[in-house]
Specification:
- The structure is a single chain.
- With 138 residues, the protein is an alpha/beta fold.
- The protein has 2 helices and 7 strands, in the order αββββαβββ.
- Helix content is 21%, strand content 46%.
- A hairpin with a 4-residue loop joins β3 and β4.
């Protein structure tokens, strides 16, 4: 489920022109690559999406953390991209992409990381509420 949620977030960011999500083809020069799996980045400007479990209620509701690590050549480009991601994701409700339904998305925290390999970097953490039925939860 975590990888599916990461892909939904990537699609939402791509649709809002925050970056370019292309999971099966290389990125061209000038594109801001959105990655849902760790690994070497072949583009200087990127958004890495990582997910982590936050809580699982006894009913079928779960909260999944989504961390965006955003890297840009300039601080102004970084902040503009972070603002665009916030506009695309925060306070989104009832999102369905490829049969994955997210009830809500909200930003919980963010932190500047300074320079990372000569790129300005920042993390943004969002909480995604979703229904995740299991054998004992429905």
């Amino acid at each position: 489920m975590e990888h599916q949620v990461a892909a939904v977030i990537a699609h939402l960011l791509d649709a809002a022109d925050v970056g370019d999500y292309s999971p099966s083809t290389p990125y061209a020069a000038g594109q801001v690559g959105i990655f849902t799996v760790p690994g070497p980045y072949d583009v200087p400007e990127s958004i890495q999406i990582a997910t982590y479990p936050v809580s699982d209620d006894l009913d079928a509701d779960s909260v999944l953390g989504v961390q965006l690590t955003i890297r840009s050549a300039t601080r102004s480009a970084l902040l503009a991209r972070c603002d665009a991601a916030f506009s695309a994701l925060h306070a989104r409700y009832a999102v369905t992409v490829d049969a994955v339904r997210l009830s809500s998305i909200e930003r919980r925290s963010a932190a500047d990381l300074g320079l990372d390999n000569n790129l300005h970097a920042r993390t943004e953490n969002y909480y995604v509420r979703l229904s995740h039925p299991t054998t004992n939860r429905y």
